[in-house]
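Sat 14:20. Reprocessing the chain from the morning session after the first attempt stalled halfway. Input below, unchanged.
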Amino acid sequence: MPFDELSKKLAKLMKETEELELQDVELFAEYLEFQMLPSIVQSAAQSVMPGIGKAEWTPKKFSLDVKFPGTIETIEFVRSNGKREVIGGETVPPFYNFLGLDERNPHPPLVTYDVFDMGSKMMLPKPIKNEYKGVLADPPEWAKFAVDKFGAECITFHSLEIDPGMGDAPISQSVKYLEDILQAVDVPVIIGCSGNKEKDVELFRETSAVTESEVLMLSAADKATWEDVIPFAVEHDHNCLLWTSLDLNNQIKMNKDALELGLPKNRIVMDPTCATLGYGLEYSFSIYQRMRLAGLLGEEDLAYPISGGTTNAWGAREAWMSEKKAPQWGLRQYRGPIWEIINALSLTLVGLDLAMMFHPIAAKNVKEITAEFFAEIPKHMEDIGYYDWVSARLKR
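Finished this time. Tokens:
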């Protein structure tokens, strides 16, 4: 029987056939296609699936009351006049205010303003020069200007000129500058250094002694100087910044070593290094986050406040390069401060307690923004339920 005739006959027979069973049949084909019509698939699925009952929601109260076993040490900076600033004391991660204001995150990040002993001789970015024009050559006036005009709550005084490569100024010059700064302002002062190990040890020996009536901070002891610097902090009751280079294990070791040398827990501040935006900020973010969470989860060797030199943001060419060389980047007077603000705010999200900053407008903005994070939940957020952030629509 010809194939065409056979096909027509089979089609006629199968027209009203629901099931076809072939026996002793061999198929020879290079290509075989089966086509399942949607209606057939749907009816087949319905025939084999059991019925589904009506879903019922189980009432559940949403709660974010997470408790952490650890507590971050509380560190105080105290002037002899009674003025003080406090950092640390957290028992929850940063900005956990969504359960209402309480004492679990008692102190917002402290912003300290940089002052240098040789500001008029430094190659400073123009946006910073413009803000401090007229006081760069006078550290005490610079510090007073930062407090009076920008509301600085803390000053960091850096003695760079004592470095043999930067002028080899005598230690007595730095001591005199520091004493004059303490007379000019009533806020706490952090004692910075030059980076030259030999001169820095001598600097901390002298400055820690002449400021014994204050509780300041020596900034900083590192792997090359900690054995010499920490005893000065112990002897004269100062805080001490322990600096490491993005290494969690080295930070733990230095913290333990400091305790063995007699430095009290409430005098330790950690600095694991602040890398700048575009040049490793994500590494710093990760290290800061791991340190803070470890401290809150009970790792006592990391349960200390964290500092960061967010001034490092100005090391990025995107922050300081002029508009003539990079017009596509926008105005430097805005770009530079924004670069520093992003650095500081990013790290406050993961545990930064002390932000060392350079541009006064950047510092002021970071202080104001973090204060907003600690403020009352806005009324319009309460009205819509601030837990329901996925479907929230805010009206301005």
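Residues 332-348 form the longest helix (17 residues).
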